[in-house]
Amino acid sequence: MQVVMGLEELRQRLPRPVITIGNFDGVHLGHQALFAKAVERAKALGGTSLAVTFEPHPIRVLRPAVNLPLITTLRQKLVLMGQSGLDLTLCLRFDQDFASLSADAFVDKLLVSRLGAAEVVVGYDFAFGHKGLGDLDLLRSKGERWGFAVHVVGPVIIDGRPVSSTRVRQEVADGNMEGARHLLGRHYQVAGRVVAGHGRGGRLLGFPTANLKVSDELLPGPGVYAVLVELADGRLLKGANNIGNNPTFDDGALSVETHLLDFDGDIYGQDIRLHFVERLRGEQRFDSPEALKAQIGLDIERAIAVLEPWVRSGNGGEK
Ligand SMILES: Cc1cc2nc3c(=O)[nH]c(=O)nc-3n(C[C@H](O)[C@H](O)[C@H](O)COP(=O)(O)O)c2cc1C
Ligand SMILES: Nc1ncnc2c1ncn2[C@@H]1O[C@H](COP(=O)(O)OP(=O)(O)OP(=O)(O)O)[C@@H](O)[C@H]1O
């Protein structure tokens, strides 16, 4: 998939573009259904499947006080979109100017004049233009006027309710990794660099941990998790992970740390990716390091049992 950052970078005239539009945070199953439809229609037309997305996420510009954690970074979002088979993603800078573009201008100037839309694929609740005032009826009437077809997809329903980015965020925050997996079609993942911790894990507990440097990404709620760990060289290892502030040691600050199984290398400074498979328990305060050590031993046994079927499948994505 080709990625184009901004309209000024888009030099070529796209043949018969089939356009889908959205924030696509998380690239969940609802989003994936739109991409599949756009790809299918572009193949049928001999055209280009094109996703238009925005950076930063509009909520950061429209409601800066809401510190919404995002499910995917831009980079990860583009990787996942690429896997959907799209030909091109156009990433537009979302600022106050863009936010003030009327729904009319959004279609007339952007979709028609600039991009030459042949067809448009949107979700069942698509809203666009200034204050989201443009709706499906407006899009359809524009389509009749300008001669582009409109395809409406979904809602994609899982467990009785439409899939949405908000639902994914909630499941992740609740530590419901199975629920998140059902909505995403993959394990919830967090990537980051391995940094130094307090150095207690290996020395005091006999379980060294890789501490992940995190900033403002969406993290599963506090607790102990069975995780698959993707190393920079692509290897996939089993791991037992803890997210919390280590109450046994009164650390205070939040840490994300993982004991890697069957591994004794040095990965300080490496970028790794955690695939959260299942929450095993809540974080607890133990009376002594020995008591915590015994519990971590049990956690690891559970983690091995939970992870085995996923590792055997080879990609960590499907059992
Ligand atoms: C599988 C696992 C479970 C853990 N569970 C707890 C817990 O319930 N309570 C707690 O205080 N710390 C827990 N920890 C965190 C340890 O306190 C931490 O790994 C140790 O203090 C080492 O920290 P360091 O890497 O900063 O040196 C757990 C760690 C792992 C790997
Ligand atoms: N469950 C779903 N089924 C079909 N289409 C969906 C579904 N969820 C979202 N979409 C569509 O995906 C497109 C992009 O949505 P976008 O990510 O911008 O919406 P959002 O409101 O930020 O996130 P979400 O609706 O996923 O919580 C929209 O056209 C939307 O209607």
Automatic annotation (TrEMBL):
Enzyme class: transferase
Ranges of residues in domain Riboflavin kinase: 183-308
Listed EC numbers: 2.7.1.26, 2.7.7.2
Pathway connected to this protein: Cofactor biosynthesis; FMN biosynthesis; FMN from riboflavin (ATP route): step 1/1; Cofactor biosynthesis; FAD biosynthesis; FAD from FMN: step 1/1
InterPro entries, per the entry: FAD_synthase, Riboflavin_kinase, Riboflavin_kinase_bac, Riboflavin_kinase_bac/euk, Riboflavin_kinase_dom_sf, Rossmann-like_a/b/a_fold
Pfam family, one: Flavokinase
Keyword Flavoprotein tagged: yes
Name of the protein in question: Riboflavin biosynthesis protein
Cell wall biogenesis/degradation is among the record's keywords: no
GO biological process: FAD biosynthetic process; FMN biosynthetic process; riboflavin biosynthetic process
Family label: Belongs to the ribF family.
One GO MF term: FMN adenylyltransferase activity
Stated role: Catalyzes the phosphorylation of riboflavin to FMN followed by the adenylation of FMN to FAD.
Keywords recorded for this protein, A-Z: ATP-binding, FAD, Flavoprotein, FMN, Kinase, Multifunctional enzyme, Nucleotide-binding, Nucleotidyltransferase, Transferase
SMART domains reported in the protein's UniProt record: Flavokinase
Transmembrane parts of this sequence: none
Organism: Desulfoferula mesophila
